[in-house]
């Protein structure tokens, strides 16, 4: 088990995405709002090393934000 503690995994949680031309991106200022392709009720996507592994929901407890895994993604080959 000790050898597993040395393995690094990059975890990414994606709430949604947006596509825009670079010139729009460069014009964004502080406080700008970017409309995403999801709603607040859609599950977030959870990636490990850029591979989708699960979906989840945002939780707020005692002022702390967390992600609760609600569905594991089964990868088929």
TrEMBL record:
SUPFAM superfamilies hit by this protein: Surface presentation of antigens (SPOA)
Q: Which GO terms describe its molecular function?
A: cytoskeletal motor activity
Q: One Pfam family for this entry, by name?
A: FliMN_C
According to its record, how does it sit in the membrane?
Peripheral membrane protein
Q: Where in the cell is it found?
A: Cell membrane
Sorted alphabetically, the Gene Ontology cellular component annotations on this record are: bacterial-type flagellum basal body; plasma membrane
Which ranges of the sequence are coiled-coil? none
Which domain of life, per UniProt? Bacteria
Q: Which InterPro entries match?
A: FliN-like_C, FliN/MopA/SpaO, FliN_T3SS_HrcQb, SpoA-like_sf
**Which keywords describe this protein according to UniProt?**
Cell membrane, Cell projection, Chemotaxis, Cilium, Flagellar rotation, Flagellum, Membrane
Q: Name one GO biological process term.
A: chemotaxis
Q: Where is the Flagellar motor switch protein FliN-like C-terminal domain?
A: 4-72
Member of which family?
Belongs to the FliN/MopA/SpaO family.
Q: What is the name of the protein in this document?
A: Flagellar motor switch protein FliN
